Amino acid sequence: ATREERNIVFNDIKVHPDYNPATFHNDIALIPMNRPVQYTSNIRPACLVDVAPPAGSEVVISGWGTISAGGPQSAILKDTKVNIVSRERCQASFEDAIITQNMMCAAASGTDACQGDSGGPMVLNQRDANGIDQFYLAGIISWGRGCARPDFPGVYTNVANLRGWIDEIVSADQEVIIETPEVTEPSETIDTAE
């Protein structure tokens, strides 16, 4: 794995006006960049989805969070594959919380996002007719119960449902650049199974 993370200086953060920190509804913010990011073979922008991926779709999540619940923070960017879970199945797992339309869920056996990964990307990879991979930001790591617990999928911000707000902010402030480093090939996975 190469170390291509970048420290970015920023002066502002645009939090969704209806963000609710108690329920994590509308858990999204945009960061105006002071300067463009230098792209590499591993650091490229991802498109934004227009429609959330359906249940069963495989997506990649990544972050520098802990590698197990209560464990140490990762020194390198980790990624793992998870599958979208239906809203109904997710809501059944979280009886005391409301999974809103602006949330989506994903899970896989023994792997998950963990503490410190919040705000990281959930990326959908689609290969075009020419065989070129195109990456789409489908979700943003938001919250969950523990890490990789079999009865609790991870909960993510549903980017497709918030495109109106994103587009409004971007068109009002052309300095806002929406970027997320996507993972071209999973090199290491977050494995929290013990």
From TrEMBL:
CDD domains assigned: Tryp_SPc
GO molecular function, one term: serine-type endopeptidase activity
Keyword Metal-binding belongs to the record: no
Cellular component, GO annotation: endoplasmic reticulum; extracellular space; Golgi apparatus
Record's subcellular location: Endoplasmic reticulum; Golgi apparatus; Secreted
EC number of this enzyme: 3.4.21.69
Single Gene Ontology BP annotation: proteolysis
Swiss-Prot/TrEMBL keywords: Disulfide bond, Endoplasmic reticulum, Glycoprotein, Golgi apparatus, Hemostasis, Hydrolase, Protease, Secreted, Serine protease
Residue ranges of every copy of the Peptidase S1 domain listed in the record: 1-171
InterPro entries recorded: Peptidase_S1_PA, Peptidase_S1_PA_chymotrypsin, Peptidase_S1A, Serine_Proteases_S1, Trypsin_dom, TRYPSIN_SER
Pfam family, one: Trypsin
Catalytic activity: Degradation of blood coagulation factors Va and VIIIa
Keyword field contains Protease: yes
SMART domains named among the record's database cross-references: Tryp_SPc
Chief localisation class: endoplasmic reticulum
Function: Protein C is a vitamin K-dependent serine protease that regulates blood coagulation by inactivating factors Va and VIIIa in the presence of calcium ions and phospholipids. Exerts a protective effect on the endothelial cell barrier function.
PANTHER family named in the record: SRCR DOMAIN-CONTAINING PROTEIN (PTHR24264:SF65), TRYPSIN-RELATED (PTHR24264)
Stated name of the protein: Vitamin K-dependent protein C
Organism expressing this protein natively: Clytia hemisphaerica
